[in-house]
Amino acid sequence: MSFHKQKTINKNIQFKGVGLHSGKFANVIIKPAMAGSGVLAGGSVRTVLELSGIQNISAKQLGCDNLLNNARATMCALKSIKNQNLFNKVD
Question: Which residue ranges form the domains of the chain, and what is each CATH number?
Answer without folding.
Answer: 6-81 (3.30.230.10)
